[in-house]
Amino acid sequence: MYPQINFLYLYPVKKKNGTMMKEICLSVMRVFALVTILVPAGCRDRKPVDFSFRYSMESVNNYKLTLTFNSDKTYEIGEYNYLTDAQAPVVRKGALTDTELEQIRTLLAGCRFFAMKDAYGFDVPAEERFENILYQVHYVADGKEKMISIRAAPHTKLPQSYHELLKFIGLFIKKYG
User: Fold this and answer.
1) Cβ neighbourhood burial of 95 (10 Å; 0-12, 13-18, 19+)
2) What does the pLDDT look like over 140-170, one tens digit per residue?
3) Parallel, antiparallel, or unpaired for β 74-81 and 63-70?
């Protein structure tokens, strides 16, 4: 019923209506080639152009550390010690290098924040979590916004790309904090 396909030449062996079957097969192959090239490219998260990324780590009622990266090449690191009222918050501001900005854009795209859940670790029983440590991510990119809250708990599964971003953040704070 269906014509046999000769995959070496990509057209039917048994031709019906001469070149029409050949043209149909070539058209199908062209569409297949376009789909296999364009669909994966569209599924990847693109590097953000206009963005603001804020990461905070807080031991509730004790200490808070924040880090903000912006697409205008600025950053801000804030340290807030709630235990000593006499100590004012320490805020450091600076400019990112072109290399740092490109690294950050690549890491942010890899994290795919908009595909992540809004919360992690809140479903873990109280005896298995670190109750007072809370991490938050606030990400605005190209007109979209995402807020993610993470309660520190063992066995909380987060994407590997998020762990790579955290490693970069740790090194960045060590260097500039």
Assistant:
1) exposed
2) 998 999 999 998 777 778 899 999 999 999 9
3) antiparallel
